[in-house]
Design goal:
- The protein has 255 residues and is an all-alpha fold.
- It has one domain.
- The longest helix has 27 residues.
- The chain is globular and about 65 Å long.
């Protein structure tokens, strides 16, 4: 009787282990699904449609025309000024300032995350534009014309990447809700300017958002900057982030 029970326990042990792993990591798995897999799949659908037909989706042009119907000289000026806030040349100095603060405080894991995410996002955007070769909409004369390729939107991708970096770095900040609110308004405002100026299709904006979300969250799963962020980045205390994870130590030992 005893051997039979032991055999049963052995057969059940893998299932029990799997159950315990899923229970222990269900939040991470859910975030991986919602934050990485689904956005990437959505981006893939958008890219495949644009690859097959440069005109894109049936709702691209109607949405652009609807936004343009509200055009007026005052809004033209606002859109031209506001859209510059989503440019890589505006966001890059802000990211550099964050990186400098992290470097001063010796938060190497967080610094690695910021640099990898920001530089990787630029490379992904440039590569995707060249591969897709999507021409920008030419429905009217834009107040701030662009002459490179359209898909995915660089402004949408840059703004979303920047906001996610801030959210991850301030994961323990008591006023994280304020960053989330301001970040959402910032991302939506930049998207509106690109549509209002007629330099992007709505699908370009969505694609930029999706690939930025998947990339920024995916990198955080690998580098795990939040593990050493016991305090927000504006804290006074200096935290040394030189400690490697056990898996990282094993990898270096093998090499």
């Amino acid at each position: 009787m005893q051997p039979v029970k032991q055999a049963t326990n052995k057969r059940r042990s893998p299932l029990s282990f799997l159950k315990n792993v899923l229970i222990a990591h269900w939040r991470s798995l859910l975030l991986l699904l919602i934050g990485v897999y689904l956005p990437f799949q959505f981006f893939e659908i958008l890219a495949m449609k644009v690859w097959q037909n440069q005109a894109g989706f049936p709702w691209d042009v109607p949405i652009l025309l609807s936004v343009h119907s509200q055009a007026q000289p005052q809004l033209d000026m606002v859109a031209v000024i506001l859209t510059k806030l989503g440019s890589i040349w505006t966001v890059l100095p802000m990211v550099s300032a964050i990186a400098f603060i992290l470097w001063q405080r010796r938060w190497w894991r967080s610094l690695t995350y910021v640099l990898t995410t920001a530089l990787g996002g630029i490379i992904i955007n440039r590569t995707a534009k060249v591969l897709m070769h999507r021409v920008r909409p030419q429905l009217w004369i834009s107040s701030a014309p662009e002459f490179d390729y359209a898909f995915p939107s660089g402004h949408a991708m840059t703004s979303m990447t920047f906001v996610i970096i801030l959210l991850i770095l301030t994961i323990n900040h008591p006023r994280r809700w304020l960053i989330r609110l301001c970040g959402s308004l910032y991302v939506l405002a930049i998207a509106w300017t690109r549509l209002y100026l007629g330099v992007h299709f709505p699908s370009d904006i969505l694609a930029g958002w999706m690939v930025a979300i998947a990339w920024a969250i995916g990198v955080s799963f690998i580098i795990k900057p939040h593990l050493n962020l016991a305090n927000p980045i504006i804290a006074d205390a200096t935290v040394d982030e030189t400690t490697l994870l056990p898996k990282e130590k094993q990898t270096l030992a093998k090499e």
